[in-house]
Amino acid sequence: MIKLRNNTKMLVFAAILTLGSYLLIYIQPETSLNYYIIALSVNLIIFFFELLSVRISAKSKLNQIGLPAVTRYSSSEEFIYHQLLPIILFASFNIFIFFNPVESLEYLILFLVFFSFFVIFINIRAYYEDKFKLEQSTHFIYAFSSIFGLFSILNGVLNVASIYELMPFILIFALFVITIISNYTLFIQDIRWNVPLITYILISSAINVGLTFFLYTQYSSVLRSSFMSASFLYLSAALIQHKQEATLDRYVIFEYCVIMALSFILLYGIS
Amino acid sequence: MFKKIFIPIKENNYTPYVLKRGAVTIYALVLLIFNIATADIAALQASASVEAQSLVNLHNQERSEHNLGELKLNSKLTASAQKKAQAMMDKDCWDHYCPDGKSPWDFFDEVGYDYVYAGENLAEGFSDNDKVFTAWMNSKTHRDNILRPEFDEIGIAIVYGEFQDIENNAVIVVHFGSREIKTNVESDLTPIDNSLEEPFNIKEPNDGQILNNNTPNISGTSPDGEISISENQKVIGESIAQSGIFTFRVPTESSLNDGEHKIDATNKTTGQSDSVNFEVDTIAPVLENLSFNSMVQGSDEDEVILDITTSPDTVSLESTADGITFNKISPKSWNIVINLKVFDHIDELNIIAFDQASNKTDQNFQLSSVQGAVNQTAEGFQVEESDFNIIERIGLRRLVNSIFLIIIITLILLDYYVLANTELGINLIRTKGNYHAAIFIILLIISMAGGTAGELLEAESI
Questions:
Q1: Most buried among A78, A176, B361, B419, using CB within 10 Å?
Q2: How many H helices and E strands in chain B?
């Protein structure tokens, strides 16, 4: 159970990020792209310091009572979970709203920024304070960061491709890199890496890129192409994870098929 | 039982009934049937949506086929298009000069886009990128804008809402522009802001404008020198043009009477002159004779129709109260349409009238004079089944799907939260498909983004 009174600092940090996102949304129509990028960078720097502050203060607690620091994650896992993915998520929210400046969406995005980063700060603090259960129960935010990051960054890339008419091979390369990074960030902790698995991930990424590129070029629909890519990542990642945990059976496959069908029906329903 | 349905507990094997595979299958089937039932055949066509980026693509493809430079998306033009589209939606006005006669160029100025060439295309009621673009290409003026060699930047905005009595309608605004004078293109456009050589021109007031000020500003562009201002050949003042600009305010002692006027300005140095005709109207519109007309069944609620008489130059009526619309019936007569529920809760009706000169009358009317007639009619008013038309169905479909999304996200997060606080929770979560929420949250974002529009049958472009 997360107690708010014990996490005032996390609330304030999440609120500062939300305010930063609000200001970015506010200045976006009035400012040039260069100034917007500078403002986004300033927000990212503030965010980086918040992450650092949470980490240092949480680490010092174990230190004060003479316990050794937590080293459950390798240094690369630590970097990806506690720095890279949070920064990708923050950038993703702002990239998405930059390319889709819709007033009603802004409030939802601001809510999601607040909620997501509150959970991320709690997770980081729990890790360094060695609160295993709390850390694990808030770990889902990284899966969300990877999937939403892919959706939003693809959305941005496809928008840029539309504006600047990127050459197809550059676009395909960019899509492939983004998809591979998303897969990697999803699995870094959970998977026992081996050659068949890496092959599977490469093939699923290639299919994902092909599907996205086909939908984008055939239907010129940036949002739909991005969504299809995110949902394919969701499906392939979930199946890999179940396979690794030896929980993949026909019922699980059926469940994912139903969820995918439901999501496509909903996509049509909101169209 | 409630717990078994909504909460993951041991008795339901840590999966609430509402999230079991069977339940999700039923949701999918029910939503599928509902979505198909509320769709029109035309709606089943692929790509039934209007997206800004796709439209930019189509513009550039067309220009590329004509060997013209590509249009780059400009954030200021996007902002000006967004402001224009929102203003059209808010005021429910369908015109290049709206709201209230505001020119498209005012929107460019508001966002600080320093244009030399500018253009605007509008459309409403389309649900498909290709269809709206084809409609523009089939119209000479729109086609000309799309293929102007002078333009090198573009901004597109699409706003959804109730517009021109159609729910979930899409208003599409395209702003074209360039901030540089083009010397290497075959152009039939005159640069809007040519600072190299100022012609003699009265820019303010505009020819034919109606002003509500009898001491107006007269300003314009001219080669530098002394400017003489006269009204009906009688000199009323002098000004000096500096840096190509002159300005003059009609003094109080020479204030203009209500009616038509012709102002002449002459540059004494070069002998050039220009004149402008305009009208002064300082009298605010009159509002009188509020009376009951009838009751009708609106799209959602019953509506009361009232009549009111105005002076003939009244161009718009507004009210500070919500749920009230005004329709001009004749030069002196307007209908006021009030939602019955709103009518039942107000004793006084505020009406604000504007005339062509933007004179304003703000007046409150007691509704007691019409309340009796409304009550009498309401008693005998038979509610008729309205046509459940395609537009309403699509609005309903989007609403139902969006609400379902919010419910399913809430249920998944609740499930997750409860599991996380059980002893077995963490292991259970990891084997339960913990990515489901992400995909539904993304769908909710798409829904709110309006990146996909409702399918509409009526389509129009200007």
A1: B419
A2: 12, 20
Whole-number percent of chain B with pLDDT over 90:
0
A261 and chain B: CB distance < 8 Å anywhere?
yes
Distance from CA of A100 to the nearest CA of B (A): 7
Chain A nearest CA to B98, separation (Å): 21
- For residue B291, how many other CB atoms are within 10 A of its CB? 11
**Contact flag A262-B112 (C-beta cutoff 8 Å):** no
- The pLDDT of residue A120 is 92
- Which residues on chain B are in Cβ contact (under 8 Å) with A151? 442
pLDDT mean across residues, chain A? 84
Whole-angstrom distance between the N-terminal and C-terminal Cα of chain A? 38
Inform me whether the C-beta atom of residue B451 falls under 8 Å from chain A C-beta atoms: yes
β-pairing, B210-211 vs B201-204, is unpaired
pLDDT greater at residue A49 or residue B5: A49
Cα separations in angstroms, B5 against B13, B14, B402: 11, 11, 22
pLDDT one-digit tens code per residue, A197-245: 888 888 888 998 998 888 888 765 778 888 888 888 888 888 888 887 7
pTM above 0.90, yes or no: no
Phi, psi of B142, rounded to the nearest 5 degrees: -70, -40
Task: Give this complex's ipTM.
Answer: 0.86
Q: Which of B56, B70, B402 is nearest residue A270 as measured by Cβ atoms?
A: B402
Contacts by residues B185-193 (CB-CB < 8 Å, ≥ 24 positions apart): B185/B149, B185/B150, B186/B149, B187/B149, B187/B150, B189/B117, B189/B148, B189/B150, B191/B116, B191/B117, B192/B105, B192/B115, B192/B116, B192/B117, B192/B118, B193/B114, B193/B115, B193/B116
When computed from its CA atoms, the radius of gyration of chain B, rounded to whole angstroms, is 30
Q: A interface mutation test: which of B36, B397, B442, B456 has the most A CBs within 10 A?
A: B442
Task: Tell me if A234 and B439 make a contact (CB, 8 A cut-off).
Answer: yes
Of A32, A238, A266, the CB nearest to B433: A238
CB contact under 8 A, B49 and A221: yes
Instruction: List all residues 6 or more positions away from B430 whose beta carbon is below 8 Å from its beta carbon.
Output: A241, A245
To test the contact with chain A by mutation, choose from B153, B445, B452, B455 the residue with the greatest count of A C-beta atoms within 10 A, namely B445
B418: contact with A, CB 8 A cutoff = no
Give dist(CA B78, CA A95) in Å, integer.
Answer: 16
- From B402, which residue of chain A is nearest by alpha-carbon distance? A270
List the 13-32 stretch of B: residues with Cβ below 8 A of A: 21, 24-25, 27-28, 31-32
Of the residues B50, B72, B75, B153, the best mutation for testing chain A's interface (the one with the most A CB atoms within 10 Å of its CB) is B75
What's the token pair of residue A146?
């990877």
Closest CA to B261 of B305, B194, B210, B201: B210
Determine, for residues B75 and A151 on separate chains, whether the beta-carbon distance falls below 8 Å: no
